[in-house]
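Notes to self after the Tuesday call (sharing in case useful).
The group wants a holo model before anyone commits to mutagenesis around the pocket. I volunteered. Ligand is adenosine-5'-diphosphate. Logging inputs and output together so the record is complete.
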Amino acid sequence: MNAVTPVLEVDELVRHFTTKDFLGREVHRVRAVDGVSFTVAPGETLGLVGESGSGKSTTGRLVLRLDDPTEGRIRFEGQDITHLNAAQLLAVRRKMQVVFQDPFSSLNPRMRVGDAVAEPLKSHRILKTAAERHERVAQLFQRVGLDPRFAERFPHQFSGGQRQRIGIARALAVSPRLIVADEPITALDVSIQAQIVNLFMDLQQELGMAYLFIAHDLAMVRFLCHRVAVMLRGRIVEMATTEQLFAHPRHPYTQALISAMP
Ligand code: ADP
Ligand code: MG
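Result:
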């Protein structure tokens, strides 16, 4: 494969949602994503920033193929992944992982966190024996700054910051090419946010993966992202390198975001 092939190419992506009344009549149409295009290069972190409801999570879900676009095209490592069957989707999922705002909203409260982190290694048949998976989970816990012995504990026994470390360990388990992080620090205390940003920065240095980093403000984006796309009402209104964006913000909404920073 060509070295400059983007990890991700999103082309004129559109996602409409319609809500219906009790007679099945269409009452409301939301243009959640309204013609969005961007690329993410290997090893690049692209920030997707915008206020609540601007279409960031929908864009992330479309990229992860957890939802189908109304129009547009998505390519992953050069392959068109807009329309895939279940087997093809499984192969792509192995290379694309997600970190949510609260990773535990999707975890079984009765499953030990080590088993949860090992789960994708098992389901994708990356490591076949329990002993191998146990070893890998211990490495992953260490990598994200958690005592490997914590793998035996249950979700409720962790703080918000620790939970997010576990969510990151789970995303890293399969050595993905792209991580979509949807507001991974929004729900955390400010002091903890900085720790998680530092962890992401270390991982960027070490592992060279690509990231789509979703945030509703620019505070952390400044440290983490090489380029930033600013979203407003389903559209990207400005896209620039992080340096350019802060030095010469062109769109009034970007200017407002910058002046709102502490
Ligand atoms: P953000 O992540 O930027 O806050 P979202 O992508 O979650 O924004 O939402 C964008 C818009 O799409 C919002 O108006 C939201 O209400 C709407 N939306 C998102 N998901 C759905 C859905 N499943 N059904 C109907 N409307 C939705
Ligand atoms: Mg969102």
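Two things stood out.
The first helix runs from residue 56 to 63.
The chain has a mean pLDDT of 93.
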